[in-house]
C-alpha cells in the first residue's frame, strides 16, 4: 500500500473503492448517496466529520473504520513480496546510465539476448509465477537500460518491454504508485514508435484505473487505440487489431468504472469486431486478445457497473469457448476473481467459493500475492456456507 496511510480521508475512500472495484455510482447507490456526493468526498471538497458516516462507508468497503481515519497497517503480504518490491524500487530509482556512471563494469547485453530475457520474464508472468518475476525484474531493468544506452534504436524494444512487465507485476501486487513510475518510463522510452506507445499504454490504463481515475483512463486509452488502429479495419493485420482491441477493452473498463454502462458496451462491441478478425489463440504484444478476451471483459464491465447477474450470464458464455483454455493462466485466474465477486454480489457464496478455488488451482500466486484476491478470499471465507477448503486456504494465508 506504500504511503496510503498518509493520504487524506477522501483519498483513502477513493483508494479502497478502487480496490473493491466499485464505480462511484455503484458505491453511491450502496451508501444511499448521490454520485456527486461521493465525488466531492473523494476530492476533499466535502468533509467526513460524522462517525456514523465513516462507519457506513467502512461497512460498504468491507474495512475497519480505523483504516479511514489513519490507524491502518500495511496489507497482509509475505516478507519476500515486500523485499522484492523494494528491490524493484531501488532499480527504478537508479540514474547511473543517464548520468554516465554505470553501477558496474558489465558489458551491454546484445539486443537479441535481451529480447529473449524479456520474453522469458513475460512467460513467467503469464504463468503467474510472480515470485520468480519479482526476482528477475530488478536485474532485467538494469540490463535493459544498459543495452538501450549501448544500442539506442534496437535496444528500445526490450527496454519498453522491461518497463511494461515491471508495471504489470506491480499492478498485480497492489503497488500502483510504483507501477505508475514504471509505466511512465515505458511511455517516455516508447515515444516516437506508435506500436510501442500503444503497448505501454495498456499498463497505463491499468494504473489509472487502479487509482480510480476512470475518465482520464478512458480518454487516454481511446487516443492510443485510434492512433494504432488501421485506416480500414478489414485490412488491419492481427498485431494492430490486437493492440487496438485491447486498448478499447481498457477504455470500456474505465467507462464501466465511471458508471457509464452504455459507453462500455459500445466500446466492447467495437473490440468484439476486431476480436473476430484476430481469432482466439493469438498473443500479439502479450495481450491474449481475441473473441474470448472480449467476452471476459464484458464480465468485468458488468461487475463494475453492478450488474452481477449479467456478469454471470456472460461468464457461462465466455468459459464455454474453446479460446478459454488458450488464455494464459494469469489471465484466467484474474478473471475468475471478477466472477467470484459477481457471485458474492448475488449472495451465492457456494459458487463464489467454487470459482475462487478454480482460480487458486489455475494460478496459486494470483491468490497468494494479489491484495485484491486476498480481499475476495476473506469475504468468501466469512460466509458460513463457504466450504472448508476456502476456510483452510484463508487460514493458511493469514486472511481473515
Automatic annotation (TrEMBL):
Query: What Gene3D superfamilies has UniProt attached to this entry?
Result: lambda repressor-like DNA-binding domains (1.10.260.40), Tetratricopeptide repeat domain (1.25.40.10)
The record's PROSITE patterns line, in alphabetical order, gives: HTH_CROC1 (PS50943)
| Domain HTH cro/C1-type residue range list | 13-68
> In this record, what's one Pfam family?
HTH_31
Q: Which GO terms label this protein's molecular function in UniProt? A: DNA binding
Residues folding into a coiled coil are none
Q: Where are the transmembrane segments?
A: none
Q: In its UniProt entry, what is this protein called?
A: Transcriptional regulator with XRE-family HTH domain
